[in-house]
Design brief:
By secondary structure, the protein is of the alpha/beta class. Helix content is 44%, strand content 17%. The chain is built from 14 helices and 13 strands. A hairpin with a 5-residue loop joins strand 3 and strand 4.
Amino acid sequence: MWKIDGAGKEKETLNLLTSTQTIIRDAITELGFNHDMYHLLKEPIKTLEVRIPVRMDDGSTKVFTGFRSQHNDALGPTMGGVRFHHQLKEDDIKALSMWMSLKCGIADLPFGGGKGGVICNPRTMSFGELERLSRGYVRAISQIVGPTKDIPAPDMYTNSQIMSWMMDEYSRLRQFDSPGFITGKPLVLGGSEGREKAGAKGVIICIEEAAKRSGIRLKGARVIVQGFGNAGSYIAKFMHEAGAYIVGISDVYGALYDPDGLNIEYLLSRRDSFGTVTTLFEGAISNQELLEQDCDILVPAAISNQITAENAGSIKAKLIVEAANGPTSLEATRILTERGVLIVPDVLAGAGGVTVSYFEWVQNKQGYYWCEEEITVKLRDRIVKSFNEIYNLAQNRQINMRLAAYIVGIRKMAEATIVRGWI
């Protein structure tokens, strides 16, 4: 989508909510539903904004703003992560909850999409301040969440420890133990084997399937991973173990590139808990420069709107697998697709995390826990089935995989909406 800037020139619109609504509209049209369906699904059913007072270590009280968005619960309770980020916006949370609905539909899960977050910078906060913020957030949203309403999970800059604090606070409020309230917990509190690696494993499965279609052998393939957080670092590790050359990685401060391959094991040993490692090296390049380096496979695993109309023509990768949320704009998708670049969209490649969150929720409900091997098999089965369905649909209808993924993701949700009598 485009808009006119102050100088009278056309400028690409990079608003995540607007671009998501555009593809939802196109998918609904392809499916043959009427415009009423679009008006229902183009916005979340419920979005809550809360104010959270937190006592800081210096004795002052700081008030944080938080959100929880629930897109659609026609198929069942909503599910989705909670992120802590200083640049968080309400529109981003809405778009992310919509993407979670799509991921659940793609993975054939009995959930709608939810997403939450707090505007804060966890890098500058102490352990105690993060705990008080986490507990305050749960108190603020406690009336609209729960094991049968809306199940939170980890997301950007949140982890199993934060999930533990949130679960404990919810259990205190409800006065009974509630492990099924939240996923991504430590194993000792009812977490699932394989949950921490699930997002990265889902991406790896998609890389393997897409590489077959693109004629790329993983052993010896040159791979760039933009982002070295939880997902990016595991993706780099797994690809390295598969025999690929990781020629580039990045963090928020810059990027490292070596056409002969980086020492991934060394970089993994030196990264901090936020995925920062490039500050230890001289000669780092920018994230944007990294995206334009020569490689076979590019994995954007950082933040949104990294590949746009401005730099799409400079991308040299043959295959792009999106591990981040919304890293490629609609116009960039069109440009790259016309050049023959296969793009595996975020709502498909990123479905591994919510799939294993579903497994964790199921295990909590039945009180019986599976081994990691069983979870890996179940995850692979779902992701491969989803990939094949979306790839074949894209080929048959001569559309890109992003639109095909939205069609698959919306179909069951729309059908459930109709049989419930909402439309």
